Amino acid sequence: MKVIHLKYPYQLNKVDPSTSYSLAVGFFDGVHRGHQAVISAAMEKAEELNIKSAVMTFDPHPSIVLGKSNEKIFYITPLPQKLEILEEMGVDTTFVVQFTSDFARLSPEDFIQYFIRDLNVKHVTAGFDFSFGAFGKGNMDLMKELSLGNFGVTVVEKQVDDGEKISSTRIRKCLQDGDMETVHHLLGRPFQVPGIVVQGDKRGRTIGFPTANIQSMEGCFIPKNGVYAVRVFVQNRLYDGVCNVGFKPTFKNPDEKQLTIEVHILDFEKNIYGEEVKVLWYKRLRDEQKFDGIESLKAQISRDKERTIEYFADK
Q1: pTM for the full model?
Q2: Which of 117, 126, 134, 295 has the most CB atoms lying inside 10 A of its own CB?
Q3: Among candidates 169, 178, 195, 136, which has minimal Cα distance to 32?
């Protein structure tokens, strides 16, 4: 997949004028089933018109630039992961538009000129609620009106599951609740956190349950604290594991609030410090809890391990 970074008004002349596109446009955080419907429709139109399929996404999140949130933004799929998923879907080209204050001030007409016409887009596909241009004044009805017949427009209607819209907001709420099975269903795949294995306090190995201490990719949304049945992709293989997300209250001073992600990988004895990994989240087993001693902790970890083995035996 070709990735083209665009920035208004300086870096726009990056497109081969002989290449035409069927474009899916949206922020697409999560690339969930609703997003997949939009992207698949654009890919089908590309095949029908015998042109390249493309996705346009934006970085960073608009609320960071527009000052709508004082809180740090955490993504369901940070940009590198989003690009990986789009490539797996078979998208030919992804345009990553840098969301700046200059870009945010573009009129809907200018957005269409610079980011549709000038990119040689022959067909645009977006969700029913996609907006563009300053203050979100542009909607898909206006997109059709301003196309003047020069490019086609497809609007994908609301994608619903269990009577409720499939949305990034809904998925974030499920992540906050630790409801990984619903997240899996809405994404169409297990939720993933990419990261790297770093040195921990090595306490796990002293109690018979060595763990990989994982530093997540910057900007990743981390599910609710607790213990989970997970799979870990490391060195091109998937392994089952038990993951603890939290502050290790049995060992830590309660005033030391450093979140950790630790995975006990089943049937695994390799040294993997420095390895890039992906943690795939399947089921929340229980809350994180403080134990009155090492033996009760070990007994609980053994139970967690058994539940994880039973869970994956059915998968």
Answers
A1: 0.91
A2: 126
A3: 169
